[in-house]
Amino acid sequence: MPTFVLIHGSYCQGSIWAETAAALRDDGHRAEAVDLPSSGTAAAQLGDLRADTDAVRRALDRTGAGAVLVAHSGGGMVLTEFADHPSVQHSVYLAAFWPRKGQSIADITGGQVPAWVIARDDGALQVSGDPEAVRQALCADIDAERFAADVYPRYVLTSVSSMTAPSTAPQPAHPATYIICEQDQVIPPQAQEAMSAAADHVVRLASPHAAMLSMPRQLASALGGVLTST
Asked: How many domains would you assign to the chain?
């Protein structure tokens, strides 16, 4: 049985996948969320793209062959590094950056820091101190009280170095699916459409950027469908 290896995006950790991972397990799948070293609570200890890649490689060593690697948002940079990995049977980009060789997130975004993100003096980035601004950007359909109490505390620091590291983008050796979040306020749907042109399959969800929070049950079903397409 393949394992869904779940890669989070910037400003969060593997716990952001908790509801989706539980839904996948309810459907009889195996699922493991990875914590990337580029995100955490201590700025001096944050890693870069290489450290993130090493963390995912260790997860693949544990899960063995046939993994379905799923990445959200900035996690797409890490996912792309495994395009030719023999243990991966399918890649899934969830509203994620899909870089060309030599591109970084900063290159793709034009180096712009979103209004809901704060650049610190210690080489780290953090989400705004205004929970409502973050909610509106990432998952406006989630109740504001629930977001402030349960979701907002999950957000952590992300290293600037992870944003500027270029992708090696090896030649793909397995199929890829792109899941477009049609109500995304972070990566515009038209940008997702453009990146999805390189995918073998395209799925659309009527979701804001953080689909794993907004509609974990529907996302789990879409991910389960990837096995059928594979």
From this structure: 1
Would you say the C-alpha torsion 177, 180, 181, 182 has a positive or negative sign?
A: negative
Domain with residue 153: its CATH number is 3.40.50.1820
Nearest to 105 by CA among 204, 39, 187: 187
Q: According to the model, what pLDDT value does residue 230 have?
A: 63
User: For 145-172, how does the pLDDT look when each residue is reduced to its tens digit (9 = 90+)?
Assistant: 999 999 999 999 999 999 999 999 999 9
The C-alpha atoms of residue 216 and residue 228 are separated, in whole angstroms, by 19
Q: Pick the closest to residue 30 from 73, 72, 59 (CA basis).
A: 59
* Cβ partners under 8 Å of residue 12, min gap 6: 39, 154, 155, 156
Residue 34 structural domain? 3-229
pTM strictly above 0.85: yes
Closest CA to 71 of 132, 29, 136, 10: 10
Measure the CA–CA gap between 18 and 155, rounded to whole angstroms: 14
Determine the pLDDT at residue 64. Answer: 87
